[in-house]
UniProtKB/TrEMBL annotation:
It comes from the Eukaryota. The lineage of its organism: Eukaryota, Viridiplantae, Streptophyta, Embryophyta, Tracheophyta. GO terms for biological process: proteolysis. GO terms for molecular function: aspartic-type endopeptidase activity. This is Peptidase A1 domain-containing protein. Residues 1-152 form the Peptidase A1 domain. SUPFAM superfamilies: Acid proteases. It comes from Triticum turgidum subsp. durum. Belongs to the peptidase A1 family. Pfam families: TAXi_C, TAXi_N.
């Protein structure tokens, strides 16, 4: 699919002129800004904001300009408050790579140089009751109980 015809996500949050955000902006209804925080629970939840939020201490991450998707500059990854030893150049944005925020997926893809340190850090941080297994070439963590929270 050509980048100028793509509609990203399940709500059409892409940067194309036909996206919901672009249409609201062109009509003068809302700034070309949105935020989402989806709460993972049995009851759903979270927040979706079209436009700006005026909240003290709220931090925004600028997007990389001239990209068809919502690329941002990822500087590092931390697990349990510890920055992982990953060369930040692995996250550089180009036409074929970069860090993309996509509301339409729950998946995370990492380049090899970031994947191994990330998985090792997660494995070291999880409870001993969590079993580490590889399923179809993918690292998984299996537990018999439920998590009240999972902070990485």
């Amino acid at each position: 699919m050509k980048a100028d015809r793509a509609v990203d996500g399940i709500f059409g949050f892409g940067q194309h002129e036909l996206s919901v955000i672009s249409q609201l902006y062109s009509l003068g209804v809302s700034p070309k800004t949105f935020s989402h925080c989806l709460k993972g629970s049995d009851n759903g939840g979270g927040i979706l904001v079209l436009g700006e939020i005026v909240e003290p201490g709220l931090v925004f991450t600028p997007l990389v300009p001239s990209q068809p998707h919502y690329n941002l500059i990822l500087e590092s990854i931390a697990v349990s408050g510890q920055k992982l030893p990953i060369d930040s150049s692995l996250f550089a944005t180009s036409n074929t790579q970069g860090t993309i925020v996509d509301s339409g997926t729950t998946l995370v893809y990492l380049v090899d140089g970031a994947y191994d340190p990330f998985i090792s850090a997660i494995a070291a941080a999880v409870s001993p009751s969590v079993r580490s297994v590889v399923s179809k070439g993918t690292q998984c963590f299996v537990t018999s109980g439920r998590f009240s929270s999972f902070s990485v």
